[in-house]
Design goal:
This protein is mainly alpha-helical. It has one domain. The protein has four helices and two strands, in the order ββαααα. A two-stranded antiparallel sheet has the order 1-2. α1 runs parallel beside α3. The chain is globular, with a radius of gyration of 17 Å.
């Protein structure tokens, strides 16, 4: 991972200097069965919450024509991620207990459709 700076050429942050993190998921060490980008982002959210408890992590604005839900809940399909991040006592193992059953089910259901 490394810090990056960029200036979007379109959308809501056009012509504004923005910062982010570049995740290098490449090279001979990379194994897509072990790298879990969603988990990495979830742990990033958790770290922000732990370091800056009062930071407004969840933006409250209409997203994808949903007016009664937070954008993060729409993106993730439920409130589970947000609730895990905001629970000061929740651990990474707790995140796994929320997500692994669905991930295993998806793996089983999609296996017949994989080509490689």
């Amino acid at each position: 991972m490394r810090e990056i700076w960029f200036e979007p050429t379109f959308h809501k942050h056009v012509k504004q200097l923005c910062s982010g993190v570049f995740i290098h998921a490449e090279g001979p060490f990379y194994d897509h069965t072990y790298f879990k980008p969603w988990r990495l982002q979830a742990l990033g959210f958790k770290a922000i919450r732990n370091l800056y408890p009062d930071y407004e992590l969840w933006r409250d604005f209409p997203y994808e024509y949903e007016f009664g839900k937070l954008a993060i809940d729409v993106i993730n399909g439920s409130t589970l991620l947000r609730e895990w991040v905001d629970d000061i006592n929740a651990t990474p193992d707790d995140l796994d207990s929320l997500t692994l059953p669905d991930e295993r089910s998806w793996d089983e259901q999609s296996q017949a459709f994989l080509r490689y």
